[in-house]
Each structure stands twice: as C-alpha cells, then as structure tokens.
Amino acid sequence: MYTQAMDTMGKEAGDAGKALRSAEEMQRQEAFDARIDAGEFIEAKDWMPDHYRKTLLRQISQHAHSEIVGMLPEGNWITRAPTLKRKAILLAKVQDEGGHGLYLYAAAETLGTSRDQMLDALHTGRAKYSSIFNYPTLTWADMGTIGWLVDGAAIMNQVPICRCSYAPYARAMVRICREESFHQRQGYDALLTMMQQGTDAQRAMVQDAVNRWWWPSIMMFGPPDDQSPNSAQSMRWGIKRVSNDTLRQKFIDATVEQARVLGVTLPDPDLKWNEERQAHDYGAIDWAEFWRVIGGDGPCNEERLGARVKAWDDGAWVREAALAHAAKHAPERAAA
Ligand code: BYC
Q: How many domains does the chain have?
C-alpha cells in the first residue's frame, strides 16, 4: 500500500514525487545492504534490488538448465550399463538430476519468472547451461569419470551456495548437495573397480576418459577471477561465497590425491605441489576453448539443445492433458 501511495504521488507531484520515491528506494536499499552485511537470508517476499533479483534468476535458471541438460550425456549410457547394479545406480543418478532441476526451477520461480519463460530462454539459446555438458560420452568409463570429476567439481562449487543469501536457493542446495555426494562416490567406485579388478584395456579406457574430462572439469568453475564480470557483485551480495579461482584450486588440490589412489595420471605436466603456496600449481587452461563452448560451438551444443527442444515439443500433449484435467476439476475444487 505504502509503495502504491508513493507511486501515485510521484505521478501527480512530478519531481518532488520522484525525489520522495527515490528517498524511499534508498532507505530500502540501505536496509537490504545491512541485512546482507549481517549475514541474514533474504526470502521471496522481501524487498530486493532489481539487479539482485536478475542476477539470482540468471544463476539459478542456468543451474536448473545445467541439471536437465546434464541428464543427457549420462542418459545415453543407461541401456548400455555393464551390470544390473550399475544400471540401477545410473538410473537413480539421472533421475536425481531431473529432481535437482525441479527444485531449482521452483526456487527461480519465486523470483517472479515462470518456468515456461525460463525454458523458452534455454530453447532459444538466450540462457546458458554448464559448459561441461557439451562434451561427448564415448565409453562406459566416462560415466565413472563424470561422477568423480564433474560431480566432484559440482559439489566443490555448490556447497558454498548452501549459504547463499537467497534462502529458497540455499534450501534447494542443501538437498542437492547431499545427493551430489552420492553421485561423486558412485563414480569413483565405478572407476576404482575398473582400475583394481579390470583388464588392461579397461584401465586404459579409464585413463582416456580422465584425459578428456580433466580440463573441461576445471573450466566448470568459470573464468579466472580477473575475467569474471559477475563475481564482484555476486560476492558482495552473498550469492557467491567463494571465488571461481579459489574453488578451482581447492578442487585440484583435493583431486590429486584421489587420482593417486585410483592409479590414473591427470593430464597436466605442469601439475605440481608448491610448498610456498601450500597448493598445487597447474598448467595454462585453454580459455579460448571455454568461451567457444559456452558461445555455442562445443562438440555437442547442437545435439544437446536439439534433444531438449524435442523433449519439450514431444511433451506438449502431456502439458495440454494436465491443463485440461485441471480445468475439468476446477469447479469441484472451488466447491470443496
Ligand atoms: N558454463 O562472471 P562469471 C552440475 C558464464 S550442474 C557455462 O564467473 P558467474 C551437474 C557465466 O554464466 C553445474 N557458462 O559468472 C548437473 C557468465 O555468463 P552470463 C552447474 C559459464 O555466474 C548434472 C560468464 O560465463 N552449476 O554440476 O558469477 C550432473 C562469466 O562468468 C560457466 C551451477 O550452475 C560454465 N562452466 O559464475 C552432474 C552452479 N562458467 O550469465 C553435475 C551455480 C561461467 O553473464 N552457478 N559461465 O551470460 C555458479 O556458481 C556460477 O554461475 C558460475 C559462474 C561459477 C558457474
């Protein structure tokens, strides 16, 4: 009510109204900043600056798109899993990713944009999804490697988002992270079985998969901090808690020991422990490749987007039937 009254005043009273309105805006902005500084969570019903809302919507919807596009490279292997146990695990993992997409779309919808609008942005190439899903899954070892490296990188990136200042996103991330750790472990377990009980050909297949997924996995954290246009503001707002480069370094440091236990070599001759930094140095990342892939020119971009658009078109009759069913039963619901 208060805001509407101020708006009316603004229209009627010209510059004086505008001044009043902007004074009110400034107060709200200051109150919002103070809440962020105090580490409070922001709920959907709370006032928030437009740019904060847009930034969240961009990140959460891209994250949701990544989950459902991320189902495709692995879905490709469900029918070819080597045992019933591995098939059941992979099926459960891919279903979890569909569920993660749903939690995230629901969190993004609280910001006032519908799921249809978000999906339209994905289907028309206006929204991004994670670069990693534009690479092909060529062998069964890719399933284990995605679990180990891709889900491992996802956990490293997503655990800090459980403390994101926007509460609906933070709540969704708590559930997602629990499931992601199962995903990472199942991948590592599949690789360990191949490395310890497999044939030479299977061990070579694992090494080949690691060679292909290592660099794309460390690109997942996004561009270097000094080339990341969104980081400073997102960190200021508590949307991002840890920078792209810091997370990438933590992931590399954690993964080196896991690779040693597994018995695979990470494909980076410059990867070595730096005593002074107490962290691993690593070789130059091919950022031109990263920008090319997120710009739409990766090995599988067309195939991935084509599969999502086809699924949307093929599912039209389900959406229409659900709406017709809801309309038919609306009078009963209204009477109840
Ligand atoms: N891929 O300023 P920056 C998963 C874009 S799901 C594509 O650093 P920001 C999983 C970025 O959007 C994995 N685009 O951006 C699922 C920005 O472009 P716009 C997804 C990327 O937002 C199923 C531009 O580059 N995880 O793991 O501050 C199975 C400049 O970057 C990428 C999430 O979405 C990328 N890798 O930071 C298994 C987590 N990196 O939007 C696993 C949530 C950057 O300005 N998201 N870009 O046009 C985040 O934490 C942050 O959005 C990012 C980027 C760290 C990804």
A: 1
